[in-house]
Amino acid sequence: MANWIFQGNPKQFDVDTYLQENTIVTWGIRQEQYKDEFQLGDKVFIWRSDGGNRNSGGVVAIGEIASEPFIENEQDSIEVKINEIRLTPESGMLLRNELKEISDTMNLQIFKMSQMTNYRLTDGEFNRLYQYWQSPQMIKEQLELTTIEKYLYAFQEVADAWFKDNAKHIQVGYHFFERFKQREHLQQMEWGDVQEIGAHINAFRMALTKKRALGNMNAPIEKYRKSFEYLFYGQEPVEWLWQTKNVPFGH
């Protein structure tokens, strides 16, 4: 079994009226690579594009595959039984512009290739969309989150696996920074100690990024020592670093 999004464009036909007047609708199969994958009972979200009416598009119905693929008017087609329609935000449709802002739906294929008709959803994508379809108010809650909260919300689904896969890296990094932040160490560290940071921060896992950031010194080592000591133990406002020219970056 698979799950799908079928998109319709109001510029090409009256999507709303078609859904309102028919329990069984016929939809074109434009992405022929999927023709042999459709099965009776597959769940389908009907997605109405903006059709020139900005921010009006999104998920307006849910149904299920009700036939085998067939040819109609020289076009591969399939029937969908419509189970529920919601044509307006007030009735609970899922707006495209809002789904695009939510971290766990912003990467749907329909946002990357918007001109297609048929989109296959992963189980995770379908479950998230269906959850929002059942409780549209959750979208409003997601939109009110800060940027970091949105990404943490999305991360929670893979967090257990990520921590399991990276447990050793995290442990080694923790012990490194526990030693690195010791005041005595900061006051005596050399450039090689600074470069070693690159082995313990994800952002520096790319060799080119690591080389650009930590390849060469931009200032005497004493400025690095004072900067890191301030970051861990300083009480003065951050402007103090610039006023005293104790920050090595950018000088």
Outline the fold blueprint:
Elements: E1 3-8, H1 15-21, E2 24-28, E3 43-48, E4 58-65, E5 70-72, E6 75-85, E7 94-95, H2 96-99, H3 109-112, E8 118-121, H4 123-134, H5 137-143, H6 147-155, H7 159-165, H8 167-180, H9 183-188, H10 191-195, H11 207-214, H12 221-233, H13 239-243
Parallel strand pairs: 1-3
Antiparallel strand pairs: 1-8, 2-6, 3-4, 4-6, 4-7, 5-6
Structure write-up:
The chain has 251 residues and is α+β, with helices and mostly antiparallel strands. It has two domains: 3-136, ph1033 like fold, CATH 3.10.590; 165-243, no CATH class. It has helices spanning 15-21, 96-99, 109-112, 123-134, 137-143, 147-155, 159-165, 167-180, 183-188, 191-195, 207-214, 221-233, 239-243; strands at residues 3-8, 24-28, 43-48, 58-65, 70-72, 75-85, 94-95, 118-121. Strands 1, 2, 3, 4, 5, 6, 7 and 8 form an eight-stranded mixed beta sheet that branches. The longest helix has 14 residues, at 167-180. The model has no long low-confidence stretch (mean pLDDT 91).
